[in-house]
Amino acid sequence: MLLSVKHRFLFVHIAKTGGTSVRAALEGLRWADPWYWPMFLCSRFSHLSGHRLATKLPRHAKAIAAKEMLPKEFFDQLFKFAFVRNPWDLQVSSFHHIRRERPRYLGGNETFDAFLRWKLDPERPYQYHVDTSIELQSDYLIDLHGRTIVDYIGRYERLHADFATACARIGIKPPDLPHAREASDRRKDYRSYYTAETAELVARHFKTDIEMLGYSFDPQE
User: Fold this and answer.
1) What's this model's pTM, rounded to 2 decimal places?
2) N or C: which end of the chain has fewer CB within 10 A?
3) Region for residue 175 given its phi and psi (left: phi exceeds 0; alpha: psi -120 to 50; beta: otherwise)
4) Where are the alpha helices (DSSP H) in 102-158?
5) Which phi and psi angles does 127 have, rounded to 5°?
6) Hey, CA dihedral for 77, 78, 83, 84, is it positive or negative?
7) Over the range 142-155, which residues count as b (16 or more CB within 10 Å of their CB) and which as e?
8) Which residues contact 213 (CB under 8 A, 6 or more apart)?
């Protein structure tokens, strides 16, 4: 999550949706923000206290966290936005990320098929640290009553165009987006990773996202 007081925006960072590139592109704005140093000092004090002061919004916090922590008038004034991604594609990306960065969290499963079945097994004890992409993306966008509380939802599939739209809403010239690389051994088309059965596993687990965000396994070109 990235908050700019000067430019009045809140970026809700959902993992594996291009958010690292968006965050990197926008972080430069903080240096010219007069609120940056007070916010930085408060964050450091919170860190030194073990975050018992609760002055920092976590990197992958949900929008509801900001709504609950910030004054209502201030929160309502913010332009709040996030990026989402096709759930089937996101799971492939997440598998490669874990295999590359944290292979010990694969649960002993070396193939995408085996890992996905293990990961989405309802009998497996829930383990958040294994993979945040097991969560619904829509949960990052709604309040406790299920109402959408962000103003703009961009898509990873058209990241540059939607980032430009978000920047226009903020009122800034779009900074260059750093290139976010996928794992080098990934096949380009996510659909090639799936069988009919594993595709259905994702469809069931992420049913709310698919319906709310309008994704499908075979998107229309």
Assistant:
1) 0.86
2) C
3) beta
4) 112-119
5) -135, 100
6) negative
7) beeeeeebbeebbb
8) 84, 137, 138, 153
